[in-house]
């Protein structure tokens, strides 16, 4: 089965990329700004994405790569008709540079639009979240059980961006401040892919994002679907996997409650 071969390669290459990053945090990093001083990129981001492009070109020359750093030359193609790898070479570059932990490599493969393979690897914890659609979600060798569906708001731990608790252009902050008062706690781990993997495994109960790229959520989306966890845009619509998206994920009941009571988009 081609899916099995792709799945094994995705895991193996994520592990090999993780080994490069485990070594990299021990040395000096070359850091540049992209759009601002809060938007970092290192030579390792580009190196790892290039590593994936070389592997894909060697083993699957007919596949496409959509990565954050854009190392594959732009080509026009219909992602729904092709096999597409969505790769974030380092998700959590700020953590990679500063805390040297809580970053990940996120790899997804969508076959003719179908979310098929998801791999998120935390090289510092040496923890790999992985799924082949229909075969179950795993952390390393352990199959992940279904997550609780009956949690109350006061028992819930959410990943949120602290910036939305202050006045901002996108979301009304008062309902979110109210939500933070009602839930058990909120976390900002700093790697969206890892945060979403934590939701898929039930370590966290939900997460809310105002703007993610396909490479950020691609792998986690396969995991969340596998677990039957709701994952939509902040308007409650289906997520388009090959572009930018707002995102809210939680078990169905919490997802409905948060969307109805705490998310007020300004536009
Ligand atoms: P990155 O490290 O791959 O850039 C940090 O809170 C999380 O948000 C990380 O997953 C980070 O991914 C992502 N992120 C950083 N800047 C972003 C931006 N401008 N738009 C969307 N996501 C971003
Ligand atoms: Ca980035
Ligand atoms: Ca990212
Ligand atoms: Ca990145």
UniProtKB/TrEMBL annotation:
Biological process, per Gene Ontology: inositol metabolic process; signal transduction
Requisite cofactors: Mg(2+)
Entry binding sites for Mg(2+) 1: 68, 88, 91, 216
Binding-site positions, Mg(2+) 2: 90
Keyword Transcription regulation among record annotations: no
The organism of origin for this protein: Amphibacillus marinus
Keyword check for DNA damage: no
Protein name: Myo-inositol-1(Or 4)-monophosphatase
Pfam families per the UniProt record, alphabetical: Inositol_P
Domain of life: Bacteria
């Amino acid at each position: 089965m081609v899916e099995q071969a792709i799945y094994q390669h995705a895991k193996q290459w994520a592990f090999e990329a993780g080994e490069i990053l485990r070594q990299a945090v021990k040395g000096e990093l070359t850091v540049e700004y992209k759009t601002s001083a809060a938007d970092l990129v290192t030579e390792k981001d580009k190196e790892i994405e290039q590593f994936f492009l070389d592997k894909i070109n060697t083993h699957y020359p007919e596949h496409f790569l959509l990565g954050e750093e854009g190392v594959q030359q732009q080509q026009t193609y219909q992602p729904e008709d092709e096999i597409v790898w969505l790769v974030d070479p380092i998700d959590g570059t700020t953590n990679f540079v500063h805390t040297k932990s809580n970053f990940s490599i996120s790899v997804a493969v969508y076959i003719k639009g179908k979310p098929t393979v998801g791999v998120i690897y935390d090289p510092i914890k040496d923890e790999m979240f992985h799924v082949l659609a229909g075969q179950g979600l795993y952390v390393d060798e352990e199959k992940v059980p279904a997550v609780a569906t009956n949690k109350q708001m006061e028992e819930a731990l959410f990943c949120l961006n602290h910036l939305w608790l202050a006045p901002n252009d996108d979301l009304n902050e008062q309902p979110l401040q109210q939500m933070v008062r009602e839930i058990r706690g909120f976390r900002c781990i700093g790697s969206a892919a890892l945060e979403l993997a934590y939701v898929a495994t039930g370590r966290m109960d939900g997460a809310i994002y105002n703007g993610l790229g396909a490479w950020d959520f691609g792998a986690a989306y396969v995991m969340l679907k596998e677990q039957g966890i709701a994952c939509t845009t902040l308007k409650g619509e289906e997520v388009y996997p090959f572009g930018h998206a707002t995102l809210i994920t939680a078990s169905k009941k919490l997802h409905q409650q948060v969307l109805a009571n705490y998310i007020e988009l300004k536009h």
